[in-house]
Amino acid sequence: MRKFIVLLLAFTMLFTTIGYASPGEKESSLGDKLQKTIYVDLVDGKYKVSSKDNGLKATMLKEYGVYKLKDGTLLSYTGTDTYQKVELLSLALTDTNAIQEAIIRYGLSEEIKNDILAQSAQAIENNNQNASVSIVVPSQPMILAQSDVYYTYNGKPMKDTTLFYFGLDSGFKYIKLGYSTKDFCSTTYNFALVGAGFSAYPVIAVGSAGLSLLEMWIAFTKEVSITAANEDYTQICWNWDKSDKYTYIDLGSGWQLGCVTQNVYINTIWTKTYFYRGTFNTTSLDTYNPRTTVTSPHFYNPAPFAFQNVSNPINERMSTNIGIHTQTY
Question: pLDDT digits over 213-249, tens only?
Fold first, then answer.
């Protein structure tokens, strides 16, 4: 399945954004939560938030999480009263030379570099010539003498690096095998997204109408009598978009990671269940589109959390344990 990523990168001296080209009408999970339209005033060469509707109107490009003015100017959201002017640049993920040049040119952090290289390696392994990365760079890069930073909190420089992934796919994974499959399917209605900071873990149904895996198999095959067998199995595959946000703080000795937060949008879930001793040895296949967003507790306001935990960075990335399979988002 085709994959897409958008990575938003902001730096103290050179603001940068990187991302996979988005699949047409697909919306980014961050774009869903930001304002669809903003108004800005151009003050001393900077685009400032305007409280008046008669300011310059900019409309959200959901797939990239940036705004576009009528004249085509692109602005990125910073979480402050200033928007950064940016431009788009696209690279093929199979073009390793161009990727290495971008990593060096923009001084990408080790975490971000590893993410890009991993996605590039997967695209090459799958011979996915369509996978690409779009880099959003500043129209007028800041020079080293400038003291401008992405934003500040408690007087300290801060920056967020947000990676937008589109169309990620787990592939079909076995979640139960053998004689215990029937009992497992009879009690499995949903799965949880587990992560740090949740007071209660969000859950996603495995299928429509709130049915268990066994009930979905019965609805599909019209059989009601099943005897367990060693050949029985059930599998799951799901597709999701996600945003991973890295928040850094500079206390005077360089950038330090304060926290990693996350936003996950579950698109589609496929389940496949097989009972060997069913009358027709039938395999059921169910498709369900929950289209549900799960956001870690500090994704939209990470600065105080990062400031508090800079000596021991907190990772709010989520994962799912279902049967014998663990999926990390």
Answer: 999 999 988 888 888 999 999 999 998 887 788 888 9
SS3 for 125?
helix
Q: What does the domain layout of the chain look like in residue ranges?
A: 4-169, 173-328
Six token digits for residue 296: 């870690």
CA 10 to chain centre: 17
Chain position carrying tokens 């690096």:
161
| Residue 316: Cβ-neighbour burial (10 angstroms; 0-12, 13-18, 19+) | buried
Does the global pTM surpass 0.85? no
DSSP 105: H
Residues 6+ apart with CB under 8 A from 195: 201, 262, 296, 316, 317, 318, 319
Residues making up the chain, counted from first to last:
329
How would DSSP label each residue in 188-217? --EEE-B-TT-SS--EEESSGGG--HHHHH
HSE (side-chain half, CA atoms, 13 Å) at 176 = 23
pLDDT tens string 130-181: 677 666 554 544 333 233 346 778 888 888 777 777 677 788 999 999 999 9
In whole angstroms, give the CA distance from residue 241 to residue 255: 28
